[in-house]
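Reproducibility note. Readers wishing to regenerate the assembly model reported in the main text can use the exact inputs given here. Chain order matters: entities are listed in the order in which they were concatenated for prediction.
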Amino acid sequence: MSQRTTEGSRSGETPVIELRHVEKHFGDLHVLRDVSLSVHRGEVVVVIGPSGSGKSTMCRAINRLETIDSGEILIEGEPLPQEGRELARMRAELGMVFQQFNLFSHMSVLDNVTLGPRDVLGLSREEAESRAMELLARVGVAEQAHKVPAQLSGGQQQRAAIARSLAMRPKAMMFDEPTSALDPEMINEVLDVMVELARGGMTMVVVTHEMSFARRVADRVVFMADGQIMEEGAPDAFFDHPRTQRARDFLDSIRGH
Ligand SMILES: Nc1ncnc2c1ncn2[C@@H]1O[C@H](COP(=O)(O)OP(=O)(O)OP(=O)(O)O)[C@@H](O)[C@H]1O
Ligand SMILES: [Mg+2]
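Running the prediction on these inputs yields the following structure tokens for the assembly.
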């Protein structure tokens, strides 16, 4: 069953995100090898794997921040446009939160969250601000709305970055190690926001080494190594009974054996 990569359990439904046989090289380095993955509506897929296995490249390719050599990437069944306004629109439909909080440093948190909705969605300032304040409250940083990012803790900045992505009403959210640059005491406040999002039915792709989060929240765990999806499965099955030696070795290494 290790090749059950394209057929999700709900095969009648168009996946929100679908990769078909995606290949990518950086020069001689083969970073994505025949990667096929379907993410269905409301599904939370956690991607784990050793450093350099291609997790970030896959996320960036989904958002077309990276080109691919061959294969297809479909969002709700449509291929990603190459460029232009259509690409900007599709990109806005996929929220992305990175390890490094990428808020604009010279703008208030509120302006960070209202910028996209005003520029791309065409919301008025009033509409954008009232929605931004709702979202900032939801992630617990409403009181920081008028500060600039540097005045916030890392955990607060990352929660504000999540609010900023949500303000674009994304079809899916991608998280690339959103807690790995945070001090330990701030990790849970960010994970809690992600847990709530998942409970609310958001479609999510999450690259993380937070195993307790993966067990608790993931519908499916995808294990990557050397640019390939080596195995995938339900979190308990994967963590308790990994099928490949590669996954066993990786799990041992992160559990500190
Ligand atoms: N812009 C680039 N140019 C050349 N090589 C790159 C580039 N970006 C990534 N790579 C290489 O591609 C491979 C996959 O990198 P990627 O960042 O996707 O891995 P990752 O699984 O996200 O790793 P990590 O867990 O360390 O974040 C690595 O060998 C990396 O060095
Ligand atoms: Mg990475």
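We highlight two features of this model. Strands lie at 17-26, 29-39, 44-48, 70-75, 78-79, 94-97, 172-176, 204-207, 220-225, 228-233. Residues 55-56, 176 surround magnesium ion (ligand 2) (CB under 6 Å).
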